[in-house]
Each structure stands twice: as structure tokens, then as C-alpha cells.
Design goal:
Elements (H helix, E strand, L loop, with lengths): L1 E8 L2 E8 L2 E5 L1 E6 L11 H4 L4 E4 H6 L1 H10 L1 H5 L5 E4 L2 H7 L6 H10 L4 E2 L12 H22 L5 E6 L5 H14 L3 E4 L3 H5 L3 H13 L7 E3 L8 H6 L4 E4 L1 H7 L2 E4 L2 E4 L11 H5 L2 H4 L3 H24 L2 H9 L3 H13 L1 H6 L8 E2 L9 H8 L10 E6 L12 E7 L2 E4 L11 E2 L6 H18 L5 E5 L4 H4 L6 E3 L1
Parallel strand pairs: 4-5, 4-11, 5-6, 6-7, 7-8, 8-9, 9-10, 10-11, 14-18, 15-16, 15-19, 19-20
Antiparallel strand pairs: 1-2, 2-3, 12-13, 16-17
Helix pairs in contact: 6-7, 7-8, 8-10, 10-17, 12-15, 15-16, 16-17
Length: about 475
């Protein structure tokens, strides 16, 4: 299996997987197919935008009729799907029931026999917040089975996915990712996150992603196992996830739940269908109640959001989109802030310049890598002249000052030499006219740091009277000027 990154925006990327003659563009979702309960026939999945599916090899293995047909005719014939198919191993059943009637070797051999394109060994998906001893013990079993899977795979043409576990212990997640990487899998699956999704525990979800990504090579394809809700796609892709799987489109429909990129709604309580997918365009609300039509809407909504995410990557606006989506739920917003505040590696992969502008959309923008980087850049400023003069960024300064004056433009949260006024993110940013307290405080702290680092180079430090009173009270300001 080959994975090529075609376009990127920070840690988010548009990529291409080539496998067994198939091509799949990422980020994308793999609809989960239960061959015993076909809510939407697999042969119709391409109409929604599906390029790859995932199914459970253990369910096929245990069902005599499905088992026989899969072995005799192959998995692609069983599901009537022309694209690549990934097979899970039964780990979910193991987590629910505590035991499954097959060994790791047996299920891997079965996946190969039926013609699966991506195999997954049996891991132990440890739930969140369990005691550390259990998390460590189950991780050891997962790692042991992963090593066996690599040996079993040998020269097979199919790809092999390495499951990353560790519960909510970030050091275990990092260790799991590093050891899986050392084993040399084709794809890495961040597992054990379904309970986090179900409980809206987005902060632990983000922590699991960040810890796992920190132990993997940057160019390794990553699958976020069990995360199929549109509201988490933008943030998850911004953190470097490439593949998702969704049973939610069908499971939620059974409970009359309508998926949106802002959350999940009870269709019985709705009067309008805000979506423009074919299902919502051609039907009334009551038509979706207790109907397969709702599953079809859910799948359309899922793929639509991924198209929005990909276009945001192409435009260099993924982080803005992630912030916008994060505001749909307080817990998602907290997770977004944590990711930006605690993840130094996000800054490492965030480009220094962009064609698009930096949009300040709220307090969470203060955690963006661009703001952190601008503050650190103060140390490298090459400031010259006799007078250091802080002015509003929107002041007309053409031919107004002599070369002896070093102008610093104040555009909260940014403060920068006027020479950088056409660069990203300084002048190449859009900020609200109303300055909130957070932006105000960052700008003042930045000015104080500039004065502390560079003030002794100047005969005089001045502040424009056009800036408000708090700026005029900063220590080190010699006088105010018009």
C-alpha cells in the first residue's frame, strides 16, 4: 500500500492511497457494512461518494452462509462492491462480550482467504479511564498480536493495519504508536475511542489523537477507528487523521437521529429539513421517521462534510473550519483549545505563510500556532532608528515619518514592525474592530516584551494617542504622540 500526500494545511492533508490497483482519496469515510443487515446496499455506496468500505470479518466468519459465500466467491462479490474493502477482526465484539471464538492467526488467515484489501489483527480496545495496570496489560497483548500479525502477513499483497491502544494514558498511546511504527504497518488505527464519541468526551478523543500522532511518522496514514460523526471531522483531520469509519449513519437512523455537522437531532422533533441532499430535498420530515431514508440522509451529510473539509485544506482554511465546527458544542470547543494549547507539533507543521488570510474568529484563535509563533518572533526582530513608535495598524503612514522612527503596528493580538505589514499573519489577517479582553491582553504583553528586549536600542519609546488608555500605561513608554 502506498500513501502520497498531495496537499496539506498544517497537520491536515489531502492524500492518495494506492492499493491492489485501487485509488482512494483521503480524508474519507469508510461506511461500515454489516453483511447480515444491509441498511443501504453496498453497491449503492459509490453514489454517496464511498471509495472504500469496512466490514467485520468476524461476523462473516461466524455466519455459515456468509462464510461459505465469502470463501467461494470472495469478499468483493459477497458485498458487490468494486472498490477496496477493509476488514475488522472482531475486536469490537471482544470489547462488548469479553471473548470471541477465533484466534488472531485464524481471523487474519480468514481475511486473506476472502480477499480483504486491508487486514486488522485482533487488538484489545481498552475503554477510557480504566486503571493503569489493566491498560498496560491489554496493551501488551495488543502489541504481541501485532507482532504476530506482521510475521503472518509476510509477502501478502494485502495491507496490514496496526491498532494503537492505551486507553486515556497518553504515554501508553505514544508507546503503542512508536512500537506499531517500528513493526512497519501500512496503516495505523487509533482505537478505543468509541466510548469517547458516545459520551461526547472530545477532550480525551483529541488527547488520544495527539499522543498517537506524536509516536508516528508524519507521512503515515492514520485511521480514527469508530469516529464517524460529521461534527468531529474538521478537528480530527486538522490533527492529522486521514480515514474514518461510520456505522453511525445506520445506527443513528434506527433511533430516528438526524446527523448534521453541528450535532445530532431527533427527527421526530423537527419541522424543517435544513439539508439540501437528495433525500431532504425530495421528502418531508415525516417521511424520514422510522425510515431507511434517514440513513441515506445521514450518509449524504457525512460525505458532504468531508468535501467541505477537503476544500478547506485546499484553500488553507482548515483551522478556521475546525474552530467554526468546535463552536457547535462546548466540549468540542474545549477539546479544540486543548489541542492548540498543548500540541507543540501542530506549530511545527503549520506553514509560515499562506495565500489566505488569518481569520480571528474568537478566543480560541489566541491558541493558534500563528499567534504563538508571532510572539516568539519578537526576539528576532531587527529594529532600527532613534524612536520606537507604536501606532494603530489602520493608520495612514505614507511619507509621515522619517527613517529615524521604527514604526510598530498594533493589530491585536499582533504587534509587528510596519515592514511586515504585508506578510502572514500580521497584515495578512482579518480581526474584528471590537477588541475583546483576550486579544487586548496579548497585544499589551507583546508590547511589554518588545520594550524589554529591544527598548534600550532607542532614544525614545512613544505610543500613539489613538490607542486606548491601557496601552498608554505600559511601563517604558516615554511619551504619547499624535
Amino acid at each position: 500500500m502506498d500513501f502520497e500526500i498531495k496537499r496539506k494545511d498544517g497537520a491536515g492533508r489531502i492524500g492518495r492511497i494506492e492499493l491492489n490497483g485501487y485509488r482512494v482519496e483521503t480524508p474519507t469515510i469508510m461506511p461500515v457494512i454489516n453483511p447480515g443487515i444491509l441498511t443501504i446496499p453496498p453497491e449503492e455506496m459509490e453514489d454517496f461518494g464511498a471509495e472504500i468500505l469496512i466490514t467485520n470479518s468476524y461476523i462473516i466468519y461466524r455466519n455459515k452462509q456468509l462464510h461459505k459465500k465469502a470463501v467461494e466467491e470472495g469478499l468483493h462479490s459477497l458485498l458487490e462492491f468494486k472498490g477496496p474493502i477493509m476488514t475488522d477482526s472482531g475486536a469490537y465484539q471482544l470489547s462488548v462480550y469479553g471473548d470471541i471464538e477465533v484466534s488472531s492467526r485464524e481471523i487474519l488467515d480468514f481475511q486473506e482467504k476472502i480477499g480483504s484489501d486491508i487486514h486488522v489483527p485482533i487488538d484489545l480496545p481498552t475503554p477510557p479511564e480504566v486503571d493503569r495496570d489493566r491498560a498496560e496489560d491489554e496493551l501488551e497483548i495488543t502489541l504481541q498480536r501485532a507482532g504476530e500479525a506482521v510475521e503472518i502477513a509476510g509477502d501478502r499483497q494485502s495491507a496490514l493495519a496496526g491498532p494503537i491502544q492505551g486507553s486515556t494514558y497518553l504515554d501508553l498511546r505514544r508507546r503503542s504508536a512508536k512500537e506499531m511504527s517500528n513493526l512497519g504497518f501500512d496503516l495505523y488505527c487509533i482505537g478505543g475511542v468509541v466510548p469517547m464519541m458516545e459520551s461526547y468526551d472530545f477532550e480525551n478523543l483529541v488527547k488520544a489523537i495527539v499522543a498517537s500522532k506524536s509516536g508516528l511518522p508524519y507521512d503515515a496514514p492514520v485511521h480514527l477507528f469508530g469516529a464517524g460523526h460529521p461534527m468531529v471531522f474538521a478537528l480530527s483531520v486538522a490533527l492529522g487523521c486521514d480515514l474514518f469509519d461510520s456505522a453511525a449513519y445506520a445506527l443513528f437512523a434506527k433511533r430516528n437521529r438526524y446527523l448534521t455537522n453541528r450535532g445530532t437531532w431527533n427527527v421526530k422533533e423537527m419541522e424543517y429539513l435544513p439539508c439540501s441532499c437528495p433525500i431532504c430535498h425530495q421528502n418531508e420530515v415525516e417521511d424520514l421517521v422510522d425510515s431507511e431514508l434517514l440513513a441515506r440522509h445521514n450518509l449524504h451529510a457525512t460525505f458532504r462534510e468531508l468535501r467541505v473539509v477537503k476544500e478547506a485544506i485546499r484553500r488553507g482554511e482548515l483551522m478556521e473550519l475546525a474552530g467554526e465546527r468546535a463552536r457547535s458544542h462546548p466540549r468540542l470547543l474545549s477539546a479544540f483549545k486543548w489541542a492548540l494549547d498543548k500540541s507543540d507539533w501542530i506549530e511545527d507543521v503549520t506553514p509560515i505563510s499562506k495565500k489566505s488570510a488569518f481569520f480571528f474568529t474568537g478566543e480560541e484563535s489566541l491558541y493558534r500556532p500563528e499567534v504563538k509563533r508571532a510572539y516568539k518572533a519578537i526576539e528576532d526582530y531587527k529594529l532600527e532608528g532613534d524612536i520606537l513608535f507604536f501606532i494603530p495598524h489602520d493608520r495612514d503612514i505614507e511619507d509621515e515619518f522619517s527613517v529615524e522612527v521604527q514604526l510598530m503596528e498594533v493589530k491585536p493580538p499582533f504587534v509587528y514592525p510596519t515592514e511586515l505589514g504585508r506578510t502572514y499573519p500580521y497584515g495578512q489577517s482579518l480581526v474584528p474592530k471590537q477588541v475583546d479582553s483576550g486579544r487586548h491582553e496579548v497585544a499589551i504583553e507583546t508590547i511589554e516584551r518588545i520594550i524589554d528586549l529591544h527598548g534600550d536600542k532607542f532614544r525614545e519609546i512613544c505610543m500613539s494617542r489613538e490607542l486606548d488608555g491601557d496601552y498608554l500605561k505600559i511601563d517604558g513608554i516615554d511619551k504619547t504622540m499624535d
